[in-house]
Design goal:
The protein is 40% helix and 25% strand. The chain is of the alpha+beta class. It folds into two domains: 87 residues, Rossmann fold (3-Layer(aba) Sandwich); 73 residues, P-loop containing nucleotide triphosphate hydrolases (Rossmann fold, 3-Layer(aba) Sandwich). The longest helix has 29 residues. The radius of gyration is 19 Å and the shape is globular.
Amino acid sequence: EEIEQTTARRFTDTFDQVKAAFSDIFAQLFEGGQADVYLLDPEKPLESGIEITAQPPGKRQQSLTLLSGGERALTAIALLFAILRVKPTPFCILDEIDATLDEANVHRFADLLSEFSKDLQLIIVTHRRGTMELADAIYGVTMEEMGVSKLLSLQLKKQAG
């Protein structure tokens, strides 16, 4: 009983921090608007599902399922980075997370990556130039002949010293 209460309290405390960070990062990525993540059953936080609502600028508040593909992707990115802000990890691997974003959103996403890259090593699989532009190094894989892959690397930023 005591362990379950402690676990529930810790979960709720962390969830509240993620909720606040999510709201902030959503507004940053969308240049306004509001988003919320909440427990469907706050009385049983360890068993509850969650619901995400979002209101991009100039639109009404709606469930995640009603957003466009790009809006859903940015909202998911906001939630992921809210979790990383509250519970940082040493590195994060993202696989084509920016694929559905238009150019303006890619640049706002890249700004967020730049902010987080100060404390977090990011490994990103992408085809988007706007995301690549912030990288310290780029690695590419090409296939010049059938069945033979070639690895290319490019250092983009000069190291201090």
